[in-house]
Amino acid sequence: MKLLRASDHKRMPWKNGGGETVEIAVSPDGVGLADFDWRVSMATVATDGPFSVFPGIDRTLSILEGEGMTLFIEGREPERLTQASDPLSFAADAPTSATLIDGTITDLNVMTRRGRFTHSVRRISVEGNGKVEPKSETALILCHRGTAEINGAVLIAGDCLALSNEASTQHPISGSAQLFLIEIEAI
User: Fold this and answer.
1) Where is the signal peptide (predicted)?
2) Are residues 103 and 175 in the same domain?
């Protein structure tokens, strides 16, 4: 178990130079954009435009802040993505562009190398006490809003708890928070 504090996340430019990303976690540690097996990040999108292309990568986007955006993914119907939408998965090597619905947004971006890893992303709401039970060997729990305590670690907005080798282990959770459970599985 490793607590990744929001204040320690790495800030870096987008691959296409159009904005800034806050890298929450990457594997292997310290690799660049061309060499990761998986990556979890947040980005602020302030203008309409194209997405960076990542050959051989699958990605899932979720809207964290703002009104959302409409995604134009080659070969698919346009997708309207808002804070109320389920996380949206698509190939990161498909040409994609976005039009903002009404101003700047912040998104959560999860990417895995196709053929080596898969991932899933889901929202979890916590009000009081409960349990979270990841099904994969690698899981990250990102605190979006509020405060949550998991296994004695207190998460506030932007913090992330990384769990390894804990598939099917129940973790006690308490607080009042909106979280994202990100599960990554080697193929």
Assistant:
1) none
2) no
pLDDT of 61-72, one tens digit each?
999 999 999 999
Return the exposure string of 98-115: e unless at least 16 CB atoms fall within 10 Å of the residue's CB, then b. Answer: bebeeeebbbbbbbbbbe
Q: Are 140 and 101 in contact (CB under 8 A)?
A: no
φ, ψ for residue 92 (rounded to 5)? -75, -5
DSSP 61: E
Do 149 and 127 belong together in one domain? Answer: yes
**In what helix (H) or strand (E) does residue 52 lie, and over which residues does it extend?**
none
Residue-wise pLDDT for 159-169, tens only, equals: 999 998 877 78
Per the listing, tokens 């979720």 go with 62
